[in-house]
Amino acid sequence: MTLPDLPQMQSRAWQRMLSGRRLDLLNPSPLDIEIADIVHGLARVARWNGQTIGSHIFSVAQHSVLVEAVMRQLAPRIDHRARLAALLHDAPEYVIGDMISPFKAVLAGTYKAVEHRLQAAIHIRFGLPATLPDDITTLVKTADRGAACLEAVALAGFDAAEARRLFGRDPGLSEAARSDYLTPWTVTITEQRFMERFRAVMSSALPP
Description:
Layout lengths: L13 E3 L5 E3 L10 H8 L17 H15 L5 H8 L5 H4 L4 H7 L1 H17 L8 H21 L5 H8 L7 H7 L5 H18 L4
Helix pairs in contact: 2-3, 2-7, 2-10, 3-7, 3-10, 7-8
């Protein structure tokens, strides 16, 4: 994978994690990435710039769990690599935060380079290729857009027609699943649910 060049930085470009790791944001090492840090950070980052209903934020961590659930709905027999990629698709946001897509499009450039480097290091840390195969990338994007469609209507004030136009079709989750995944969870529950799915996906990769 060829990564974009980044400007030379004279000031500090690393962050201390609660695990004790020191993550260089411009040249991240997979050895400095811990799932506990990712989950802790993502559970505290709000989707939709916080413009969602409910007593709690709808976090990037909860969104990631929803995306993995949507993927299982769309492709029940998909292997663990795709499900892991779905769970980790927004993982860089544990250190760079979430940014709504319209603003990302304006910034592009350096922001995307930092995001791509972090994503590659995260993939390597958990046994995925730095750059995902095209078929997995397509599945993740489809599940991500399906989750966004659900969130837009249930949480962010969009009507169904507008959500379909912007994000594509509703992925068809059951009513019980919608009620569960689209009710904003507390930080503690979010961390627990994310880790449950992460452990389940990782264990499915082990030989019987």
